[in-house]
Amino acid sequence: MPTARRTAILAVLLVAAGSLAFATGAAVLDGEADTLADDRIAVQPADGPNGDYAYLNDDDEIAIDVSASNPNLRNSSFEGVNVDSRGTIDDVFTITYTADRSAEVWIEQDDAGEQGDGNLTFVHEDGSIENESNGVTLAPNESVSVGLRFDTHGAEAGGRLGADEFSIHANVTDPESETMTTADDDSDSSGPTVFVTGSGAERSLSASDVDGGDTVRFGTDGMPIDRSNVTLDGLELEGVSVERVEMTAGGSPEAFPDAGDLEAPRDPIPLGYLALAYDFDPESVGSMHLRFSIDRDALGDADPEDVTVFRRSDDGEADGDWEPRETAPLDEEVVEMRDLPADRVHFVATTDDFSTFAVAVHTDRIGVEEAEIADEALETGVGTTVTATVENAGGAAGERTLAFTADGETLESETASLAPGESTTVTFPVGFDEDGAYDLAVDGTSAGTLLVGDGTDSSDRGAQGGAGGGDRSDTGGDGSGNDAGESDSGSGASDDGSASPEADAPTEEPGGFGIPELAGVTGVLAVLLGWLAVIRRMPRS
């Protein structure tokens, strides 16, 4: 396969302030062109306002000049691209294959030359066209429209963007070895002209010269939805049946007052809100694709598959529903192919209605619904079980480690993994070798109190003894030899000096007559009766 190469001039000047018109359109090979590969590859400025950034120099070679030195730019106030900005200048020039076979074309910036500030990438509608791996195959009479994507954050005014030169490469198919390929020739269609204006979290979008069934693509230059955490990167309208489209887009980390906060089943967490206003019949658009991205650090541990865009129904009711829309992350291969920032997760959401939207993420919400103990009282050394019902009330799968505690001390733990809406039971065996009353819980949810033995431990007995109950001992708790509950200061007063209930109650005196006393009386009576019998038997005088 013969290879052709053209080196061309690239000049993109950086300024503190400036203006650009963003447009889209296909090229038409109807004028002078820079040709290579035996005139089978033609390069020329694109139709539309952005084509003014490209021109043929005195050597009839394509030159890209986004600066005041460009002879096509008659606006004296224009100087270049703003610093600290991102954007895309669509459809600057076209590459057309004019032979009857096919060719693969791509662009490379000159690494040998001095590189400028910032970042500049040659792109087409599907992503980067730089390097052979991103080459575009052109069928006979087919064109590709090429634009510039730039990022000037960190650059300084007065500098330039990208390299001094760039090369257009073409692998031209050998006519003797390649079979015939065919493609529809749509090069006669210029396509819609698109303009995007605005800054910060607002954009005005307009498209004109829209043919029936066209797809209109707006690049929104990373419009903030929640600062840089969540951004709107593009918006596409498919199947447009009106000639002109005008819209405004606005982003906010907080809910818009007329729509209210996101409320949806399983309580997804809102990451930001997007409002779209329009002046055309929504029925004139087949579908809309919202392209947005989220900073990987802001997304945290959440699974990108759990990110969903919700649309607020516009039926006029205050309690209108938030309806989920088809949302999917882009494959890593697509991200790489389109040369998208790798430190962000990129998504596309599809809807056929316009309104206010919320970008949200589902999370797991795993918790213990209830816990209960099989037995409320046991003997020491005997075991029982505690069973907990665990449910995932969130919209994402997850897992949680549940702690089983007694009096706040963890005895055991168990991990539960649950899908959204799923529930399960977790059982913990339990038993104690010491008497006592134990408060049992699973992940903070009480299972009840378990009584072991007589239900008292050493601290309980101490408390009971301090109240005058339990076993009595010769030595009191203070080592004084007094019974528990008595002191030298008297037991009839409480700590605050007032009379205690025990002091007010009648004092029971001991009766003083027990079994030993009864035995003594019986002995005395026996002796008296014995003497009485002897006296009766004595002779009388």
From TrEMBL:
InterPro entries: CARDB, DUF1102, Ig-like_fold. This is CARDB domain-containing protein. It comes from the Archaea. Residues 174-222, 451-514 are annotated as: Disordered. Residues 483-504 have a biased composition (Low complexity). It comes from Halorubrum glutamatedens. The keyword Heme does not apply. Residues 375-442 form the CARDB domain. Residues 463-482 have a biased composition (Gly residues). The chain crosses the membrane at residues 518-535. Gene3D superfamilies: Immunoglobulins. Keywords: Membrane, Transmembrane, Transmembrane helix. Pfam families: CARDB (PF07705), DUF1102 (PF06510). The keyword Cell membrane does not apply.
